[in-house]
Amino acid sequence: MSKKLDTPSGEASSSGLRATVPSSSVAGEPHESLYVLSPIPTILRHIMLTNSGEWPSWLPTFLALLSLVFACSLYIIHTIALVYGKLHLWKKVKFDRKREGVSIIKPIVGLDANLEENLKCFCELDYHQYELHICFQKRDDPAVPLVKRVLANYPNLDVKIHYGGEKVGLNPKINNMMPAYRSAKYPLIVVSDSGIWMHSDALMDMVNCMQPGYALVTQVPYCKDRKGFANNLEQIYFGTSHARIYLAGNAMKFVCSTGMSSMFRKSALDECGGLEAFGGYLAEDYFFGLELMNRGWLCDVSTFPALQNSAHLTVDRFIDRISRWVKLRIAMLPHIIIVEPIQDCFTCGILASLATSYLFGWNPLIHFTLHTICWFTSDWTLNRMMQNGSLQISFPEYLSTWVVRETIAPFIFLYALCNQDIEWRESRFRLEWGGRIRQNNRFHNHHNHYSADKIKKSIGNLIFRRGITDAEYDRAAEETLQRMYEYFDTVPDKHNVSKEYDVSYSMGVLTTVISKEIGTYVINKQSPNRQIWLSSPISGPKRYDLVEEKGLADKGEPAQRGLRLRQDRKNEPTKLKPQDNQGRHDDMSYRPCNFFYNVTGEEAERLLKEYGVDGEFLARPSESHPRNFTLSIVRGESVTHIKIHNKDDMLNLCGGESFPSLSDLVQFYMENPDQLQEKNGGTIVLRRPVSIPLSEPAAKEVREPTAQRWFHANITGAEAVQLLSKEKQWAFLVRESQRQPGYYAITVKTDENVVHILIRRNSATGMYHVGGGDEFRSVSDLLEHYNNNPMVEENSQRVVHLINLVPSTCVPADAIEARISLLQHLDPNTNKTGLAEEFEKVPTNESYLSKREGKRDVNVNKNRYKNIVPYDHTRVVLKEVGQNPGDTDYINANYIRIPGGPPLYLLSDKVYISTQGCLPHTVVDFWKMVWQENCRVIVMTTKEVERAKSKCERYWPDLNFEKKIGLLLIKNVEEVVVKNDVNEDSYIKRKLVVTNGDSPPRELSHLQFVSWPDHGCPDHPEHVLDFLDAVDDAWEKTPNPKSPIVVHCR
């Protein structure tokens, strides 16, 4: 309904505007339009104008006073933030082992360059009882393999992985987290985004803040140090403008929270309806706090900020992100639309300078300059406070970036105001007043078949042109999206489409979700060779390639563009067939290897019966169908053969679940032994691949390349791309084909992307080739040839070189001699051996692993070497701590445990403690550890003194003497010096008896290797092997085989 406003006398009739207030068809429903601003200036004009049509005289004074009051308010907020930050941030954590357990929920969508580092820190938190829930919306999320690989290093961590989510609203993050929320077993829940890096004791700090009466603890968002202008821009924003409002707001008990990292009581949130009650909001974290405070609960801020550590940021992405937050704030708190644009330094300074000039006659330029200096000083101080020290960039660089940030702030606000839609997590939403969201769907009623054709034609015409740049791609994708909008809006209303489906374009990815019949189509400019992949639940993944200048050609199956060879000796180039697909990016640590052999069924039975045990298996080609395979498994005294069907390049067993490769299929049934059953209900168990010695021709054929430095065993194409991402142009490696067992693939990094070239084997001659041309007896000969005869892309004529070999450091044990021989060869180009090259690539440290305890001031003097300290997550913690100053639970020692299961299936379950040679003041702690861990074997690989320097304090008594160390009494009851084959002292065996008060005495074996030189290695390995045999003998005689073996040098 509309109401016409009367115009004042003398006004033209055209100035009497209509203020239209949209009404909803349903009472209580929010308005369709969000920011209906056009009537407001008109209403104010009619209220404030005098009868003569002039502004009242009091208005400038009123506005000047209002501006001055607002500026003073901002300075008060500055002061509150600085004081609160100084008193609250980065405080020492008090550890309380009696606090309740914590369930950590991490929703993950997509692969990020820093995801591994971020995930590891959550696996190493210094807290006595917590569980980790990883949430994926899709099972084929590219981050799944990386997450599995990281978690494999933490076998004792309580972790669960959830897939699929549960739809309870429009917020995709809430939907993704629902299964984890429902299965969380602890009363405290932490929700932390995948891009957050957390200090090892930050969780304990959050729990400490969760005092009785409190239900929410949030972390102030900040940024981990990363290089680049956009990253500096983001760090300054979160360290100044955002931190100021966040800290001051929480100091004044206003709701001010973000969902990057926050902790809440599950029982309190259940009172509010649970996590699902907030599925209709994007800023769910803000509404958590609002609802909890309305119910009488309190909120607090952790003393540790939440450090964002996502991949490299661009200025465009920074602007998009900040503008999204501005839209959220405006929708949740409408008055922000007035405050937001004038709360930054320059706009506030201009208003305050004009106000003081009008009221007091001050020079506005001088006032603005002083204002800017004060504001910058406050921001600089607050930023350093958030950083907890010096900033990563220089002062001039900081100043210039700060000026840029303050300058663009009003324009970001205007940019946000002009576009009401929010793109987030591959979806587009429209905000409503109060913070609720609805799916933004511009596709109303269109014909499914023609819409799909239109998409394909539009993309083919616009995107795939030869030599397209990233900027051209972005413009083409935007134009394509606009054409889709225009097309679907003109289609007659015949076929309804659910409002949950949409089209969006963000960061180079065009996502088209049209209807349940058509499915989801994704166009990604980062696909290899600028291909287009149309992924649909109906048709499966299809790829379209550029063919000359004709646009797209449907290949019907995933396959790379062809290459052809350039051969200087031949005029006629040889075309290559499509190469191996990259395959699924799976976790190589979970994937089985060396299980495919090119043998007949009869030969498979012989090999399995001769070398296999129950549950061991191999895969081989099918003898009845060339595209199928057969799985042969040892079951008792017999061998069972199961056909693997190949349908549309997807493999399955007897119509069961389909997999893109043999490795994926075998891995699944090894990890899920109850899934493979006979018709009579009997279970067929796959334990591990059979180990066939190299003396067998079948094994030699399969494993011969594994000794070569260029061969990378058991990796997919996607993992090969990741390995080459940090290498030079024309770097290459060779791997097994995941799609076509028995074949190999060359993965090469070109000037723009990575290509994969399939190496085939002629079954008739046994020779290797790349789709035509010359054939070679071995893959090594093939590579050597094409080092001198580079390859060329079939259409673009671009040369593909094989220049920079990326060596593998993984080698089977039975190929170690051949690999060492290769590593000792001198490369004429680099004048280095392979051993020297690999040694130079060994990382000297792993900064992502916490070593906080060993670097504490009170513990530094307990380290023999300042740069060698134990990792916090595996260090030995002393349970008995003395009362003297300097007594702590710290000793420089780490547990070393051997993981069982795939991929190595090691039978040993030994546990080791690796520690340093004792210092005079750490001997007591050393024996405390030995007694605490019930250690019965101590291995010492150094002398007490070498080259007149003390290497290890003597911590045992002489033969037939005893020594009191702390509360323990150590007696040396036996000592034998063992000679080597040249009659030199090799090692010493001692028998020590340790007594602790009234406890039964314990007998320990102490073995000291005394023939290891101070620098270098022993001349004869036999001496070391004899010593290791003695260690094994001592361990086997211990009464407690589960007790750790202590090993130390100097």
Describe it.
It is found in: Golgi apparatus membrane. Pathway: Lipid metabolism; sphingolipid metabolism; Sphingolipid metabolism. It is a single chain. This protein has 1050 residues and is α+β, with helices and mostly antiparallel strands. The chain has a nine-stranded mixed beta sheet. Strand 36 and strand 37 form a beta hairpin. Helix 2 packs parallel to helix 14 and helix 3 packs parallel to helix 4.
Keywords summarizing the entry:
single chain; 1050 residues; alpha+beta; Spore Coat Polysaccharide Biosynthesis Protein SpsA, Chain A; 7 domains; 9-stranded mixed beta sheet; 7-stranded mixed beta sheet; 27 helices; 21% strand; disordered N terminus
Write the layout of secondary structure elements.
Layout: E1 2-4, E2 18-20, H1 39-48, H2 58-88, E3 102-108, H3 115-123, E4 130-136, H4 144-151, E5 159-163, H5 172-183, E6 188-192, E7 196-197, H6 202-209, E8 214-218, E9 221-223, H7 229-239, H8 241-251, E10 261-265, H9 266-271, H10 284-294, E11 298-301, E12 306-308, H11 315-332, H12 336-339, H13 345-360, H14 364-387, H15 395-418, E13 421-424, E14 427-431, E15 437-439, H16 448-462, H17 470-490, E16 503-506, E17 509-513, E18 520-524, E19 532-536, E20 540-546, E21 552-554, E22 563-565, H18 601-611, E23 616-621, E24 629-635, E25 638-647, E26 650-653, H19 662-671, E27 688-689, H20 697-703, E28 711-712, H21 717-724, E29 731-736, E30 744-749, E31 754-761, E32 768-769, H22 779-788, E33 791-793, E34 799-800, E35 804-805, H23 816-823, E36 826-827, E37 832-833, H24 834-840, H25 852-855, E38 875-877, E39 890-897, E40 911-915, H26 923-932, E41 937-940, E42 945-946, E43 949-950, E44 962-965, E45 968-979, E46 985-996, E47 1002-1009, H27 1021-1036, E48 1045-1048
Parallel strand pairs: 3-4, 3-6, 4-5, 8-11, 9-12, 23-27, 28-29, 29-35, 40-48, 41-47, 41-48
Antiparallel strand pairs: 1-2, 6-10, 7-12, 8-10, 13-14, 14-15, 16-17, 17-18, 19-20, 20-21, 22-33, 23-24, 24-25, 25-26, 29-30, 30-31, 31-32, 33-34, 36-37, 38-39, 39-40, 42-43, 44-45, 45-46, 46-47
Domain SH2: 594-690, 710-803
Keywords: Glycosyltransferase, Golgi apparatus, Hydrolase, Ion transport, Iron, Iron transport, Lipid biosynthesis, Lipid metabolism, Membrane, Protein phosphatase, SH2 domain, Transferase, Transmembrane, Transmembrane helix, Transport
Region (Disordered): 1-26, 549-587
